[in-house]
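From: lab user (bench 3)
To: helpdesk
Subject: output format question, protein + L263DTV3

Hello, I'm new to running complex predictions and I'm not sure whether the block I got back is the full result or only part of it. Here's what I submitted:
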Amino acid sequence: MTTTAQDNSPKKRQRIINCVTQLPYKIQLGESNDDWKISATTGNSALYSSLEYLQFDSTEYEQHVVGWTGEITRTERNLFTREAKEKPQDLDDDPLYLTKEQINGLTTTLQDHMKSDKEAKTDTTQTAPVTNNVHPVWLLRKNQSRWRNYAEKVIWPTFHYILNPSNEGEQEKNWWYDYVKFNEAYAQKIGEVYRKGDIIWIHDYYLLLLPQLLRMKFNDESIIIGYFHHAPWPSNEYFRCLPRRKQILDGLVGANRICFQNESFSRHFVSSCKRSLDATAKKSKNSSNSDQYQVSVYGGDVLVDSLPIGVNTTQILKDAFTKDIDSKVLSIKQAYQNKKIIIGRDRLDSVRGVVQKLRAFETFLAMYPEWRDQVVLIQVSSPIANRNSPQTIRLEQQVNELVNSINSEYGNLNFSPVQHYYMRIPKDVYLSLLRVADLCLITSVRDGMNTTALEYVTVKSHMSNFSCYGNPLILSEFSGSSNVLKDAIVVNPWDSVAVAKSINMALKLDKEEKSNLESKLWKEVPTIQDWTNKFLSSLKEQASSDDDVERKMTPALNRPVLLENYKQAKRRLFLFDYDGTLTPIVKDPAAAIPSARLYTILQKLCADPHNQIWIISGRDQKFLNKWLGGKLPQLGLSAEHGCFMKDVSCQDWVNLTEKVDMSWQVRVNEVMEEFTTRTPGSFIERKKVALTWHYRRTVPELGEFHAKELKEKLLSFTDDFDLEVMDGKANIEVRPRFVNKGEIVKRLVWHQHGKPQDMLKGISEKLPKDEMPDFVLCLGDDFTDEDMFRQLNTIETCWKEKYPDQKNQWGNYGFYPVTVGSASKKTVAKAHLTDPQQVLETLGLLVGDVSLFQSAGTVDLDSRGHVKNSESSLKSKLASKAYVMKRSASYTGAKV
Ligand SMILES: O=P(O)(O)OC[C@H]1O[C@H](O[C@H]2O[C@H](CO)[C@@H](O)[C@H](O)[C@H]2O)[C@H](O)[C@@H](O)[C@@H]1O
Ligand SMILES: [Mg+2]
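Helpdesk reply: Thanks, we reran it on our side. This is the complete output you should expect:
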């Protein structure tokens, strides 16, 4: 018998960086500025129980939580009782200048809090405690709720099918800038925490830009980012109303996996990507037999699917069946003796359907007089944060009016059929209500997942003394939960009569019918442990499958560095491809003409004497002259992938292929014509030298199939002529091998900056470094542009040897070879921008045409959300110092 040695060493756990909108704590600051009060927040119970599970019970993962501190409020002591209570101070006016020590102090307090939670909650020591695992995002500024505005006032309504007139006015623009900064602040914090091999998990719609920002930040091809969307995702007809729809989608598709609460939300998302990003998608089934999509966008792939969130069923049952709650259940029962109890608990906002519920209940009492005086509806409505908005005030009025009218119509001096509590209730009261209920009524008109429904079914799965087992649930078909709890009594909340009939039917169910329903429903409740593990293990799988194929992810272009380098450089060279880089790809080549915005930006770039701008394209001279050279003679042009050149501020073209034998054109043309006849919709673009066969307008499958065949046929004889056959974007191009875009780049970089070109002369590698460019931005989208990037990389290697001491402050020579397309595209470029729109935004940034916060990833921020080293950042630092001095003086009695 052989024995195997047991490995007792602790297993290395997979690190997870879990990014949530807000840490699960409410943070209050006492008058002394050092006295922190930390308590658990309410809401988001499902998500926070997933954090708890990873924190306390998971042996497989080491969790690090990154989250905003939330609005920090101040407390003051009551003079008589000495009790601390929230100061009714306007948060908008509190600048919250905290010193580094105070911030560190609070971070430690939060970490200790988490640790003591662990000690209190676990009785096992199977996992090593991770102490430094709470990483607060500090965004201390006046008006702390500013960070919520865009998410809550623009995104949330649209995602819940509420269209507010958006005029992209000043206010909304500022909200957007704050939203961008909020996401940037997370990227920065994650930058401090991230280690190679970590999995990053991002939650919900406050952080839609974060996936792409992280790609931009980390030069780590193996980084795995998962995003879970807790809210509904609307149909594209709604989503496309968002003025920033493209930036939002661009931000999200930086993730490897995007997951939703149900299949219809993921379908809507895919449709938004198809319409707004021109993405394609392949549908299949995942291991749980639900739809998943491989969405190809900007040449890379993202996995999109759904996984409904769950609740911590074990904990709920443990908490709900205690002696204390038994006695609470009994008191409620006694208060409503011989009456059926219907319960509802919702946030009072326009989508939770409280108004619909009350209308349905009113209809029920009208339709079924026999139930009057026999049924009570206990409705708990919790107030939302922004109670002062006109919509909320109107909603409160509507609810009050309905409650009053039902109670005056169907109640009497001793009894009111609707008991409305407009307040937040403690957990034990909530659990008592779930237990005591004969029926739970959920009539939301839109939600992602209604956890009350899941918690109710969980509680009803348990036998207890009060014959509360298995009571039914009425659930709105518009709630995300109806996709999960398929055996609930599903209703349309807008149809009061149908809901009334369902209430009647539900209350009349006998014990056996109820028990049957519950046993089906109970099986349908997902647990939070399962949800967390499934989500993370699929990300782990993705990470390991990507290891196999040695996936290389290209980081997004670091725009703060680019901008800084641009400002400092004196000899700037721009090398731009045209189609797919400066203009989007369109069906008809003749229609791909420069936009007014492109002209403006090129004009501004050209106007700076430090800049030399070249367009290096596959297009012919005629096209480039007509649309670019003719309008901006300062541009240098190169046509047909390097066959022709026109220097900056010069009219004449030089043909670099003059001495080449062109007899191959006849043969290539013949073959291309044969394929054009066989492939309806295809055509040949005949340039001076190159020939291009286009198949964008064919039936896609046929075009692709014939393109492959054509390429093989051309390759069989092109070697004899030393030709290159290139796979372009829905085209096959042929041109002489010895010219390519890389050759042009070589000539332009190894050149005295600003001096005219001698096109027929070779290059000299003996030039002093300070006569050549100190900033080269090279942008291209296509296979042929790789020659440019490769050339720049070669020159960089050469310069490293030749001029090792002449690097700039970033440790390089200012070369930016950037591909236009997704991060997962195969390229030798060092960075990527997603599409021509992002190209223009980036160039706009350089010429001061675009605000720093128009799009994400343009600047670095300080911990208060100011641009690092900017005037406002410095001002804020000074104000903070003055504030701290004043405070300490007021404590010591000294004068400042
Ligand atoms: O080097 P580029 O400036 O990127 O030019 C490459 C080719 O672009 C053009 O074709 C491509 O763009 C068309 C317009 O969007 C599109 O309809 C076509 O399917 C693409 O292949 C151009 O027609 C070619 O001559 C260029 O070589
Ligand atoms: Mg191109």
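A quick orientation on your result: Residues 577-580, 585-589, 592, 617-619, 685, 692, 694, 696, 728-731, 733, 782, 784 surround L263DTV3 (ligand 1) (CB under 6 Å). Let us know if anything else is unclear.
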